[in-house]
């Protein structure tokens, strides 16, 4: 009984550093990639889609866990004023779990994602290798290297945005078309912006920890403008995809997601020097998740 209690005691903080609420993002990305492939080929492999989802969730958990451990060691975790969307889970400062255990957990979940990746490589072929290489760099080098050279936002946009959409499409048939490639563009921008906006509350602690995010390089005002421009570009890109016949007309349903972006955009233009209210961070997340899901829905509707 004591052993079971000890195991549960270790399991709870590991679940916490996994950041479960954030794991909705990979679900929307795999759905979008599969839907984009279906718009091109007319079918979806449920088994391959499910396995890909497990792999991407494992990799996302790995990023979250490794980032939490590194932020605790660097002192960032102790200095952030956490929100539900930024600042870490505060698991390490408030529980008995140590960073070694969290690092091992992060590497274990990365290995699970890697094993699934190898299986797909055997099934689909070497066309997946470039995605794997960039994805592995985005996961394993994110905290220690990429965030210190102003590349964290791009790495996130690729590793948990555009590349999973392309990968989820490729595993369906081993082929890629303009639909899948174009669907990856808004996914990249959305995740890029997810990280960018969530950096505003943590700008001082991140700088203390040696990070060089875009907000550190360009300041609050220019980073706010960048967020606003890239956010507005998402519905424009989707509309262009429809006008140019890359997307079906039903993809316009994804534009409804932009309603949630109004408040974050106004904040980023008017008061980027101030700490973003929780409602701004929340609406940004709603915009990102709903746009991915609505675009996936719009792409698959014509073949249902």
UniProtKB/TrEMBL annotation:
Top-level taxon of the source organism: Archaea
Which keywords appear in this protein's UniProt record, sorted alphabetically? Membrane, Menaquinone biosynthesis, Transferase, Transmembrane, Transmembrane helix
Sequence intervals crossing the membrane: 21-40, 46-66, 105-134, 154-171, 178-197, 226-243, 250-269, 281-301
Q: How does it sit in the membrane?
A: Multi-pass membrane protein
Q: Does the keyword Transferase apply?
A: yes
InterPro entries listed in its UniProt record: UbiA_prenyltransferase (IPR000537), UbiA_sf (IPR044878), UBIAD1 (IPR026046)
- GO terms, molecular function: prenyltransferase activity
Biological process (GO) annotations? menaquinone biosynthetic process; vitamin K biosynthetic process
Q: Record's GO cellular component, any one?
A: plasma membrane
- Annotated localization: Cell membrane
What is the name attached to this protein's record?
A: 1,4-dihydroxy-2-naphthoate octaprenyltransferase
User: What organism is recorded for this protein?
Assistant: Haloquadratum walsbyi J07HQW1
